[in-house]
Design brief:
The complex is a heterodimer. By secondary structure, chain A is mostly helical. Chain A has 21 helices and 2 strands. A two-stranded antiparallel sheet of chain A has the order 1-2. In chain A, α10 packs across α14 and α14 crosses α15. The longest helix of chain A has 35 residues. The radius of gyration of chain A is 22 Å and the shape is globular. Chain B contains 3 helices and no strands. The chains are: A mainly alpha, B mainly alpha. Chains A and B meet through α5, α10, α11, α13 and α14 of A and α2 and α3 of B.
């Protein structure tokens, strides 16, 4: 084994041990649901910063975004405005959600929807969406890990990296089962440190060796222009709408994913969330710098069909062997942490809202069910990787986000108004989900680069993000039906929350 | 109380600044060789962070920790 591989193995084994040790953190009774799933809701600003950073910046950031920039150019940079405007949204909306969740003992978004609308079907719809959307996102983490295993090669590359991937997932399942959210929270410290080290080193070393940014951009233009679908370092006016809607819809969906909600609810106060909204953009700067590595790969003459491999390939080329080991570990651990939280978040939804309906008293049986479901989620995600083929790994996240966004009206509008009728929200959701699925898969089937959909209205074509169109349809139908059901005086259901729960 | 809430309007600035690509979809002026398109959007990350910090400090209640 080379020194790089040794360092990689040592770091990954080290965090695994940490994952198991985490069960002893803060004398927890891990049979209790709150303790297992939310770390007892006790995390302060610092722990939350590491946890949220470790949770939100995933293989999406380290692998999928640079790959997209490498493939299509400027359009891939939409992830930067996305990761910027997400934070004012957290500051206002998620702080409000945290408050009501704390007061009424919610662990999931579906808990709130059930309490607010008194509608079991809507509760299940919200929970199913979360579980469904988590799958492609976990799949994206697996893709990220696989590219690193293939780059290291040797035993890690055996069977196309699938063997190492399976081992990683058994280990992941085992420590999440044992320690709950405490495991990823503790590992996040190591993960984020390694990531910062790696990205700072990469952004100092790589552009300098390539002759500086001006030189890199000069080299990139002609290469992008000769791609099968030509790209450029600037957008064309036809892409403006798609660029803006992809950034906006992605930022609206980011914080309603089960893994984001899990990390948000683990905070000990509303102020912890608001302070973090101001401090977390530090990670978005990293995201932007990583995106630019896509151009570095082009300038370095890296030509590959597997675009996901470009970041590991850059590390292999420009870092000394031992530091490449550190960087590989950063990517793999960077994918394991969010994958663990996604599995926990989805399992919470499954156990609390599908298996049983929401009730503030959660039995130990429920905790046990959630722990097992957590393992099942990992297995399902493996199947997703095996059966859904996409051109860019980011398509996984865009598809999941298009589904996830469809709970926005029930959840986020619900935080402010009870005007919408639960049945209207349900039908709106159904239409949104159907539209997102049809548009998304038709694009994947025709081999489009990102799941952007050209909408033709009155002979006028506007290409925008699938999730955005589906959300508009969803809201339109929910509003129309609410008005009709209100006119027909259909029972709007019981609202168990009071105004005081939100402040 | 009313005057404090006014600070929240600042939170709309990042949306206006980043969601209208014609504003920033050009190469010049470049910074350290990075076209305007890229450094402008990266700058918004930092500006947004500062705005959020400011809003937090200005709307804080005495009882907040």
């Amino acid at each position: 084994m080379s020194s790089g591989t040794l360092i990689f193995v040592a770091l990954v084994v080290g965090v695994t041990v940490l994952g198991f040790v985490a069960s002893r953190w803060g004398h927890a009774n891990l049979k209790s649901f709150d303790e297992w799933a939310l770390g007892g809701r006790r995390f302060g600003t610092l722990v939350s910063w590491f946890l949220l950073g470790g949770d939100l910046y995933t293989a999406y950031t380290f692998v999928a975004v640079p790959a997209l920039v490498y493939g299509v150019g400027a359009f891939g940079f939409f992830a930067v405005p996305y990761a910027t405007i997400a934070y004012p949204i957290v500051y206002v909306l998620l702080a409000r959600f945290w408050t009501v969740a704390k007061k009424r003992g919610y662990i999931t978004t579906a808990d709130f929807v059930r309490d607010r609308y008194g509608d079991r079907t809507l509760e299940i719809a919200v929970a199913v969406t979360g579980v469904l959307a988590a799958m492609p996102y976990i799949a994206l983490q697996l893709v990220g890990m696989k590219t690193v295993f293939l780059q290291i090669g040797g035993i890690f590359g055996a069977g196309g990296g699938v063997v190492a991937l399976a081992v990683a997932f058994v280990v992941l399942g085992a420590y999440t089962y044992t320690s709950g959210l405490r495991a990823p929270a503790m590992i996040a410290f190591v993960k984020d440190t390694l990531i910062y080290l790696t990205v700072i080193a990469a952004i100092i070393v790589i552009p300098a060796k390539l002759g500086g940014w001006a030189h890199i951009f000069r080299a990139v233009g002609p290469v992008l222009a000769h791609r099968p679908t030509p790209g450029a370092v600037l957008l064309t006016p036809q892409m403006y709408f798609a660029y803006a809607t992809t950034a906006l819809a992605s930022s609206l969906s980011l914080f309603i994913y089960p893994h984001s909600i899990t990390s948000i609810l683990a905070a000990k106060s509303k102020q912890v969330i608001q302070r973090n909204a101001a401090l977390l953009p530090a990670y978005s700067v990293l995201l932007g710098l990583l995106a630019l590595l896509g151009y570095c790969a082009i300038a370095a003459g890296i030509a590959t069909k597997d675009t996901n491999a470009i970041v590991p390939m850059l590390f292999a080329r420009f870092f000394p062997d031992w530091f490449a080991g550190v960087a590989y570990a950063a990517i793999v651990i960077g994918a394991l942490v969010p994958a663990a939280i996604m599995a926990i978040g989805a399992a919470n939804l499954f156990a609390s809202n599908i298996f049983r309906h929401f009730s503030p008293e959660r039995s130990h049986t429920l905790t046990r069910a959630a722990k097992f479901l957590c393992l099942a989620m990992c297995a399902l995600a493996l199947l997703f990787v095996a059966f859904v083929k996409v051109q860019y790994a980011i398509d996984f996240q865009l598809l999941g986000g298009s589904w996830m966004l469809q709970i926005f009206p029930a959840l986020i509008f619900g935080l402010y108004t009870r005007w919408f009728h639960p049945k209207a929200l349900l039908i709106g959701w159904l239409c949104g989900m159907t539209a997102a699925t049809v548009m998304g898969f038709s694009n994947i089937a025709t081999g489009k680069i990102v799941i952007e959909f050209p909408l033709h209205v009155f002979g006028f074509s506007l290409t925008g993000f699938v999730a955005f169109y589906a959300l508009l349809l969803n809201i339109g139908i929910a509003a129309l039906l609410t008005w009709l059901l209100g006119a027909a005086k259909v029972d709007p259901g019981v609202d168990a929350t009071t105004i005081g729960d939100y402040a | 109380m009313k005057t404090k809430r006014a600070w929240y309007w600042l939170l709309l600035a990042p949306f206006v600044g980043t969601l209208w690509p014609p504003f920033y979809n050009h190469a010049d002026p470049a910074l350290f060789g990075l076209p305007f398109f890229y450094w402008y959007q990266l700058l918004w990350v930092i500006v947004t962070s500062a705005i959020l910090g400011l809003v937090f400090l200005m709307t804080r209640e005495r009882s907040d920790v």
